[in-house]
């Protein structure tokens, strides 16, 4: 089953269970100051759970573009090293807003996975919330009992509060979760340890694919839990992981979600994917990052030097450097992957196709500009490294990390990554101190300026005078100070 069909079948399945299929929210979050990027399917429904708004439909399903590179969910360091964490991924989800609850959510998840997708039952495990004494939370016996009807009890494992209890914040809606995991271990290992003995649900080859959250409580400021008047279901399933399970692969990158990107990259680099682990990591990182960058730009976030724009710039520069160092890509190359994404997502996210030329142009320009300074920056690091080796030093000075940032455009996390590859670390406090000094300097300079054009803060009264770019981005909109 190819990935397009996998996605379609998910939506069709929930449509057949009377769900309204809705669009993904944009990847970039302009309305919620607490969240830069959408990181879960439920983000766009937050107000329904908080009771601030009434849902138009009480059953909804979709595929949501998510990005997990900042804040509570930051998977960036995992990407390319493991086989199932991405920066940008699709989260398939179904929701009940005060309608069905645990019984249906569990039965439908199982029906979809085993009957529609045909996943082998003896490769699936589920977890239910095992209670938390400290927080006086009970085991989710109800979920356990529903699962018991459909799966052998030795495949139902208890999970901790960290993994199996969801809370929006210190107060507000919360409740237990039940996860579904796929066992991708080798047969010999399964033979050796299985059933309840598989206590460690963090085994790297037992991968979480679906999380079913049952919102049934409302946590008060006092810490006390009250039952919610209407109970909700919020589920999220990693689309790329699901494709891996259905296509019987052991890595998301071996599914047709990634193979076209990987083929083009290996061809361009003149290497064979799978032949060298360091090159493979570079290829995986780039094929992951291009998706995040392309969708962020499509959804209105251009790379820039601050806030969300800088997150995107960092991801892009990270990809450029992986290509430069390991695959010998000395010219812009990431933008050439965009047409593959356009084909892959034409059915589901046509906004990428609509902005293809623009997205390619932005990426190419970003790449060119970083490639202009990258080589010299890397040479600088090399000379520092030999210097440090001769002195027996291990920590790159904050001043130098700042120079790499300021003169060569190296984000701190990139310098840290290169340092790690060489058994070194970076004095990030020293870096931050240098950054503060520079901010103080530019503030003093800005105070001297008398020009018409300013990027305004919240306090000033402004008149909108036009966009600097095609894409609306608050930081790029030009205002005239009145
Ligand atoms: P994990 O424990 O693997 O990091 P999670 O518990 O953080 O996953 P959830 O917040 O429960 O993930 O999100 C719902 C689903 O989204 C997960 O079950 C998983 O299939 C998928 N998912 C989560 N993070 C990623 C990621 N970085 N890349 C790809 N899929 C992901
Ligand atoms: Mg996670
Ligand atoms: Mg998890
Ligand atoms: Mg989870």
UniProtKB/TrEMBL annotation:
<keyword id="KW-0862">Zinc</keyword>
<keyword id="KW-0067">ATP-binding</keyword>
<keyword id="KW-0030">Aminoacyl-tRNA synthetase</keyword>
<keyword id="KW-0694">RNA-binding</keyword>
<protein>
    <recommendedName>
        <fullName>Alanine--tRNA ligase</fullName>
        <ecNumber>6.1.1.7</ecNumber>
    </recommendedName>
</protein>
<dbReference type="GO" id="GO:0005737">
    <property type="term" value="C:cytoplasm"/>
</dbReference>
<keyword id="KW-0648">Protein biosynthesis</keyword>
<dbReference type="GO" id="GO:0004813">
    <property type="term" value="F:alanine-tRNA ligase activity"/>
</dbReference>
<dbReference type="GO" id="GO:0008270">
    <property type="term" value="F:zinc ion binding"/>
</dbReference>
<keyword id="KW-0479">Metal-binding</keyword>
<feature type="domain" description="Alanyl-transfer RNA synthetases family profile">
    <location>
        <begin position="1"/>
        <end position="482"/>
    </location>
</feature>
<dbReference type="GO" id="GO:0005524">
    <property type="term" value="F:ATP binding"/>
</dbReference>
<comment type="similarity">
    <text>Belongs to the class-II aminoacyl-tRNA synthetase family.</text>
</comment>
<comment type="function">
    <text>Catalyzes the attachment of alanine to tRNA(Ala) in a two-step reaction: alanine is first activated by ATP to form Ala-AMP and then transferred to the acceptor end of tRNA(Ala). Also edits incorrectly charged Ser-tRNA(Ala) and Gly-tRNA(Ala) via its editing domain.</text>
</comment>
<dbReference type="GO" id="GO:0002161">
    <property type="term" value="F:aminoacyl-tRNA deacylase activity"/>
</dbReference>
<keyword id="KW-0963">Cytoplasm</keyword>
<keyword id="KW-0547">Nucleotide-binding</keyword>
<keyword id="KW-0436">Ligase</keyword>
<dbReference type="GO" id="GO:0000049">
    <property type="term" value="F:tRNA binding"/>
</dbReference>
<keyword id="KW-0820">tRNA-binding</keyword>
<dbReference type="GO" id="GO:0006419">
    <property type="term" value="P:alanyl-tRNA aminoacylation"/>
</dbReference>
């Amino acid at each position: 089953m190819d990935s397009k069909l996998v996605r379609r079948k998910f939506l069709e399945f929930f449509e057949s269970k009377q769900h309204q299929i809705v669009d993904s929210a944009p990847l970039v979050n302009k309305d919620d100051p607490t969240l830069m990027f959408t990181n879960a399917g439920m983000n766009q429904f937050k107000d329904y759970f908080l009771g601030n708004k009434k849902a138009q439909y009480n059953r909804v399903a979709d595929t949501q573009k998510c990005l997990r590179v900042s804040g509570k969910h930051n998977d960036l360091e995992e990407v390319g090293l493991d086989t199932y964490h991405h920066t940008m991924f699709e989260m398939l989800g179904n929701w009940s807003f005060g309608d069905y609850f645990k019984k249906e959510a569990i039965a439908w998840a199982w029906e979809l996975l085993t009957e529609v997708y045909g996943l082998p039952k003896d490769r699936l495990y589920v977890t239910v919330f095992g209670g938390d004494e400290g927080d006086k939370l009970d085991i989710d016996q109800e979920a356990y009992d529903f699962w018991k009807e459909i799966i052998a009890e030795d495949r139902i494992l208890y999970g901790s509060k960290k993994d199996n209890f969801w809370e929006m914040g210190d107060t507000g809606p919360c409740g237990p979760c039940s996860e579904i995991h796929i066992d991708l271990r080798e047969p010999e290992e399964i033979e050796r340890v299985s059933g309840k003995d598989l206590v460690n649900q963090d085994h790297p080859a037992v991968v979480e694919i679906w999380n079913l959250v049952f919102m049934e409580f409302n946590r008060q400021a006092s810490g006390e839990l009250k039952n919610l008047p209407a109970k909700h279901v919020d589920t999220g399933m990693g689309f790329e992981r699901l494709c891996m399970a259905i296509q019987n692969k052991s890595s998301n990158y071996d599914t047709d979600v990634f193979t076209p990107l990987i083929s083009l990259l290996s061809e361009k680099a003149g290497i064979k994917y799978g032949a060298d682990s360091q090159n493979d990591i570079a290829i995986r990182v780039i094929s992951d990052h291009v998706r995040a960058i392309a969708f962020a730009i499509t959804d209105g976030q251009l790379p820039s030097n601050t806030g969300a724009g800088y997150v995107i710039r960092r991801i892009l520069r990270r990809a450029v450097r992986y290509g430069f160092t390991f695959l010998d890509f000395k010219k812009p190359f990431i933008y050439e992957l965009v047409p593959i994404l356009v084909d892959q997502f034409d059915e589901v996210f046509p906004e990428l196709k609509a902005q293809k030329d623009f997205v390619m142009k932005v990426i190419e320009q970003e790449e060119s500009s970083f490639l202009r300074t990258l080589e010299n920056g890397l040479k600088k690091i090399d000379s520092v490294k030999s210097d440090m080796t001769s002195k027996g030093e291990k920590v790159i000075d904050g001043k130098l990390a700042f120079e790499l940032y300021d003169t060569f455009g190296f984000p701190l996390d990139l310098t840290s990554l290169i340092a790690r590859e060489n058994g070194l670390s970076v004095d990030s406090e020293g870096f931050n101190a240098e950054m503060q000094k520079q901010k103080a300097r530019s503030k003093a300079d800005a105070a001297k300026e008398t020009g018409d054009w300013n990027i305004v803060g919240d306090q000033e009264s402004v008149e909108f005078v036009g966009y600097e770019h095609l894409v609306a981005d608050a930081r790029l909109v030009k205002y005239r100070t009145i």
